Amino acid sequence: MSKEFSDPSPVTPVQPVQLGPDDSFQFRCHKGIACFNKCCENIDIMLAPYDVLRLKKRLGLSARDFLDNFTRDFQMDGHGMPGLKLATKEESPACVFLTPEGCGVYTDRPSACRYYALGLLSMRKKDSPADEDSYFVVKEDHCLGHLQPKTQTVRDYRKEQGLEDYDAINREWRQIVLKKRSGGPAVGKPSERSLELFFLASYDLDGFRDFISTPGFTELFELDPAEKQALIDNDEELLRFAFRFLKQALFGEITIPVSSEAAEKRRERYRRRVEQLKRDAAERKVLDQDKQYESLKDE
Ligand code: SF4
Ligand code: SF4
To answer: How do residues 256-273 score in pLDDT, each as one tens digit?
Structure first.
């Protein structure tokens, strides 16, 4: 299966030819083909936020229940940025959704499954404001689709596979991931809290919905009540808002108005907490010194 963010190299099945949207490649997958289901029998599929949204809806589950039962965690980088992969069956490396008749969630299958046998690589050139996508053919020995007499452009293939909806949302998230990985100007070593927020806003959409309904969020962010209700009622809008929130929290890109009064109250609470911690530390030091003097008296 194709892997987003992977680099093409001679030891992988990725063909070393970069394709643009109007380049053509030969491939056709269909139900009667001899290798039917082979590609889903040994998977390593990374999930993006819109994949999770579609699958949890399809299964009628909360995001948390979907994550617990159908995914496994992995770290996307050395700083522990949380990633998700599609779970496999207990007894084999086959996809948890694979059935003898084919994919059990076909119309909501993840974008990596839709792209196969293409691989996607997103890159931002130096001084360019936007990422550019390029594509590679992935040729694995078991896949007979490359021998089928059908040639199409990348653009037509993406359309046929329903990838435009997926990429329209996931692209923005990929940009956040790339920026966080490469450490933009305002980005230092990520705190535990920032990694938790990244997970919540990226994958646990129902948890994020609860988060924006908390009194703390409502106090800090000045969101029009009607706008907030529209977010609560619409998963896709909520996910787009979650990306805005992430950019604000991680990179300081302010698009959600913050109440200055609430921000000042928070800063004041923070200052008081720091003062208290300093006082506690000084008290502990005095107590330690007292103990040392006491022990000297006994000698
Ligand atoms: S989700 Fe469907 S297409 Fe993707 S690996 Fe699983 S069974 Fe195959
Ligand atoms: S042609 Fe390739 S993608 Fe289609 S079922 Fe066979 S192995 Fe899977």
So the answer is: 999 877 777 777 777 787
Cα distance between residue 92 and residue 42, in whole Å: 8
CA distance 125 to 164: 23
Q: What is the DSSP letter of 16?
A: S
Reported as a single tens digit per residue, the pLDDT across 240-261 is: 999 999 999 989 999 999 987 7
Identity of the amino acid at 159? K
Ligand 2 midpoint to CA 265 (Å): 58
**Is the pTM higher than 0.70?**
yes
CA distances from 152 to 20, 26, 128, 134 (A): 12, 7, 29, 16
pLDDT band at 298, cuts 50/70/90? Answer: low
Pick the atom of ligand 2 nearest to 144's CA. Answer: 1
Nearest CA to ligand 1 atom 1: 109
- Choice from 1, 59, 103 to test ligand 1 binding pocket (greatest atom count within 8 A of CB): 103
Is the CB of residue 26 below 6 angstroms from any atom belonging to ligand 2? no
